[in-house]
Task: structure prediction
Amino acid sequence: MNKLKARGFSPVVTHRKEDGSRWTVKEKLMLGLTPKEYWATQFKNPFNWIIAVIYAVGLPVLVGRFIFGLGWATHSSYDYPWGLFLGWGLFVMVPLSASGFMMGTTVELFGRKDFKSLERLGLLNGLLGYLFAVVFLQVDLGQPWRLVYPMFVSLGPAAVLFLVAWHVATYLSVQVAELVPAFSEWMGLKKPKKFIKSIVLGLTISGIILSTLHQGALGGLFTYTPGKLHPLWFSSAFQWLHFFCSSIFGGLSMLIVVSTLTKWFMKWRCDDKFLKNLDYCTLGLAKGCSLALITYLVIKIIAVAHDNEWGYLFSGWGQWYLFELTAGVVAPMVLYALAIRNQNASLARFAALLAVLGIALNRMNTALWAFNWKLYQEIPHWREVMIAITVYTTYIVVYRFVLARMPIVYSWKGDE
Amino acid sequence: MKKINRRSFLKGGVAGTAAVATTGLSSKASAAGDFGGYPDSMGVLVDLTKCVGCRTCEAACNKEQGLPAPDLPFDDFSVFDMKGHGGQKRRTSEKEYTLVNRYDIPGRDKPIFRKFQCNHCQEPACLTSCFVNAYTKTKEGAVIYDESVCVGCRTCMVACPFYVPTYTYSSAINPVVKKCIMCYDTRLKFGRPPACVEACPQEVMTFGKRKDLINLGREKIKRNPGKYIDHIYGEKEVGGTSWMYMSDVSFDQVGFDTHLGNQPIISYVKDFLAMVPMVLTIWPALFTGFHLLSNRKKANEEKENSKS
Ligand code: SF4
Ligand code: SF4
Ligand code: SF4
Result:
């Protein structure tokens, strides 16, 4: 597509064609190309071929999981009831999707309109991340069709997961609402956009509350496991704070990573405003990240001191823990600081990648590797790995599909 | 209010003050954690020194609970040498709610056997972690489970400190949790001892009121000086359990986790639960305030700019 653009093609950004007639929805979906041109570009894209291969293997396995049950797709472990689907799909995806509420807060609440060009990407990253966390959950639940039971059939309000369920569900609808303007611009509907605009502050604040609570609650889930999770990763008093605080730089760093990828692979879709502002915004986000990283590092150390766990640091687990902290927290923190000082956005992008990997490592450690540290290491079944890859690929496909169409990284011209 | 557990951060300055301010609110949210079990609930005292590893209890449970036929017959003792998933000793599964494992202790003339099943905690982690309330602690002491509401999130399996609940992963349509229910619907409800207890030829297990069993255990330890370890496992562990154990070798040598502490699992979750009402009440005001402030600031700046 980038090449097409270089040759003078311009994707749909308004309701009317040059000759004054309206684009139909179908034409909008094809980005203003003729069907033949559209499919030709899709075929030429090597990335699509990779996706096709993943689907060829992964989709049958995914379908198999629902036909033959979890026992067929996983090791059916009684000791590790949660595997990759939740370890990766819930515990890693959700903090990396905290960008939605962070951007909403920055732009709508603190009135930092200078970040406006990144706001929608932040919101979209949030919405899709949560949506696919729920998809992962549905793959993992023994009886996914009972998903609404905790809401309407049998309530266990004193359980941490009850909170997660309710908050993720409510927050998903908040995020859908927050993205209605983008959709209604694209569809040419005026009313919904105006309505959302009138309640945007309320939406943003409920977004903050819900996010604080469910990001924290994901950590809270592990406070049930004092005897199973390694003490260095376990903290009764601080677990929720660790999870919440790290989701701040997790979400922002993921936003930097995604915006970088967009700039590389979907430049044709970005408008000048987005591209011109990107370095400035990236460095702004970097500032937020470095503050959150410092706070996180401090409360991580406080937690070790509070439970007096210094001794563990000298064990093998301690080395692993220190590696997680050094590579995933200290390194991005230092790099972010350098990037801000030298106004070097590329360096900030590298720091963001490290921070994202750091979050992933932390959540995987908590959910799988340092879990049951007294027992044995569980290596996921290949089918489980394949399903996780397939679902994640779908996440990327949907992400790309929306980015290419809705006014996320470009502004819609001429509302009517 | 019960004493806050040792891990809580009440010691810690400002954060501590905030926690004090909210414990009042939280006591309701975590009321389950202050529940010390029913006073007259029943229990079982297991004397490991008497067990000979005949596996009669396993067979009795299989029959009583209508479980599928075992892979190897119950009189096959090669199972004691089998290693399960992850190189662990045998563990309970969706097909067996209880089993006996052999432990060879250096210096002890005979191996020692340990029966494993749900311990029927006084404040069960499985119960407090379930978001559809599938578990019930009955007044007789059993922890039972209602499969008709279970979503299959398996948090209860994650939360149980003894690795008890198992899951019928093999079923695609109706997978459910499986675990020992202390023979609640067929026996305990009517005041009768569980099948495994009654079947044991060595009278390893004593069925009775939990508080009487504790006295009985203490008495036995006193009357046989030097025979037993001076500890009844389950009297206090994770808030106390209905099934309790006596042994003549230290408990960690027979596969018991001796680092679980005496706090019920839910007490570790309290710090988080305490923060929930705080966020719900303070956040909206706080952030609306921020919003107003930042807007005022901007308005002022604009005024300044237009003056100069
Ligand atoms: S042993 Fe585990 S499954 Fe049994 S009551 Fe206690 S927490 Fe629940
Ligand atoms: S698996 Fe079922 S019983 Fe266990 S916590 Fe989830 S819903 Fe409750
Ligand atoms: S109490 Fe009943 S269900 Fe539990 S192990 Fe014994 S026989 Fe089986």
The CA atoms of residues 56 and 291 of chain A lie 44 Å apart. Chain A touches chain B through 69 residues (CB under 8 Å).
